[in-house]
């Protein structure tokens, strides 16, 4: 059999073997990490083009290197497609990832020591939203809002009171473990009242927004940052979307403020992903992601799992395993052995430490990309239930149960080939 990557196999067989093993692993496991997805073959091809050979510091028409005859149109195409898809006035498609994109917003609108406000990391926020161990929490004075203990939702009266008391330069909304619809209008109203710049970090839900399955922050936020993978199904990159009045500040923050030459092969792949996201089929995909998440959440709740906020409005489910008497890390590692790839995660007001928390985080973007629908979510929930029970039991009983689930998962995955994979 001809290898999928013949040049790589010939030049570096050790690395080629690891790539092939990962391709097989992605093909025959059920990937439930909400920040992961499968990109199309077209996105993969764009990522692997000769565009990686070219340096392009600056912006289209204003470069510091010659030979940009093809690069400038590629970047312009990606930016134009982003603006058309999200209904924005300016798009910067150069940030290397989501964290630098957020840093660019700080650089554009705040000075070191200024107060910034974001959702607490243990409550679903992101490290770069002013959390203490991040550069954003060391260089700026970070204050955090939380969710209510009783229902796991944001209390906007508390957010407003905190904003009025602290007067932040920047308010960030969005995060990494938020299973509910983000009320951008409410955040926007508070930001305007205190004179803050509202930054909407939509990295997790950009694809849902593009597909009409989540409200858009565009009418309410001054700046929108996002990764281009996750629900958007693009390469690992990022974008910043802004109103025209903020375009110069953001562009200067990205380059020369934070980085040099953009990764042109990634820019091209972003353009491909945005083209794909503009197709009618992507709206169907986004709706299916949410439908699957709701169905999976309902099936887990029926089996007695405690869900943070009681369920989900989007692609993400946060499960508190305290009642199951199984730590999140133990459960995640057991489920991984069963072919159910999740991540352990802190839950709001978690008494356990972040590296050994009480919860697991699940999502439906990847399985939806493979074509699984709501009719399969009962089976997925049943596997999770069995896997967590096996983790609690431990010993030989655990090994037998997880091995059994692993075989069942692989059998189902064989019927749903993953996009972009040469195996399946």
From TrEMBL:
<dbReference type="InterPro" id="IPR039429">
    <property type="entry name" value="SHMT-like_dom"/>
</dbReference>
<comment type="function">
    <text>Catalyzes the reversible interconversion of serine and glycine with tetrahydrofolate (THF) serving as the one-carbon carrier. This reaction serves as the major source of one-carbon groups required for the biosynthesis of purines, thymidylate, methionine, and other important biomolecules. Also exhibits THF-independent aldolase activity toward beta-hydroxyamino acids, producing glycine and aldehydes, via a retro-aldol mechanism.</text>
</comment>
<feature type="binding site">
    <location>
        <position position="121"/>
    </location>
    <ligand>
        <name>(6S)-5,6,7,8-tetrahydrofolate</name>
    </ligand>
</feature>
<keyword id="KW-0663">Pyridoxal phosphate</keyword>
<dbReference type="InterPro" id="IPR019798">
    <property type="entry name" value="Ser_HO-MeTrfase_PLP_BS"/>
</dbReference>
<dbReference type="InterPro" id="IPR049943">
    <property type="entry name" value="Ser_HO-MeTrfase-like"/>
</dbReference>
<keyword id="KW-0963">Cytoplasm</keyword>
<feature type="binding site">
    <location>
        <position position="245"/>
    </location>
    <ligand>
        <name>(6S)-5,6,7,8-tetrahydrofolate</name>
    </ligand>
</feature>
<comment type="pathway">
    <text>Amino-acid biosynthesis; glycine biosynthesis; glycine from L-serine: step 1/1.</text>
</comment>
<comment type="pathway">
    <text>One-carbon metabolism; tetrahydrofolate interconversion.</text>
</comment>
<feature type="binding site">
    <location>
        <begin position="125"/>
        <end position="127"/>
    </location>
    <ligand>
        <name>(6S)-5,6,7,8-tetrahydrofolate</name>
    </ligand>
</feature>
<feature type="site" description="Plays an important role in substrate specificity">
    <location>
        <position position="229"/>
    </location>
</feature>
<comment type="similarity">
    <text>Belongs to the SHMT family.</text>
</comment>
<dbReference type="InterPro" id="IPR015422">
    <property type="entry name" value="PyrdxlP-dep_Trfase_small"/>
</dbReference>
<dbReference type="Pfam" id="PF00464">
    <property type="entry name" value="SHMT"/>
</dbReference>
<feature type="domain" description="Serine hydroxymethyltransferase-like">
    <location>
        <begin position="8"/>
        <end position="384"/>
    </location>
</feature>
<dbReference type="InterPro" id="IPR001085">
    <property type="entry name" value="Ser_HO-MeTrfase"/>
</dbReference>
<dbReference type="InterPro" id="IPR015424">
    <property type="entry name" value="PyrdxlP-dep_Trfase"/>
</dbReference>
<comment type="subunit">
    <text>Homodimer.</text>
</comment>
<protein>
    <recommendedName>
        <fullName>Serine hydroxymethyltransferase</fullName>
        <ecNumber>2.1.2.1</ecNumber>
    </recommendedName>
</protein>
<dbReference type="InterPro" id="IPR015421">
    <property type="entry name" value="PyrdxlP-dep_Trfase_major"/>
</dbReference>
<feature type="modified residue" description="N6-(pyridoxal phosphate)lysine">
    <location>
        <position position="230"/>
    </location>
</feature>
<keyword id="KW-0554">One-carbon metabolism</keyword>
<keyword id="KW-0028">Amino-acid biosynthesis</keyword>
<keyword id="KW-0808">Transferase</keyword>
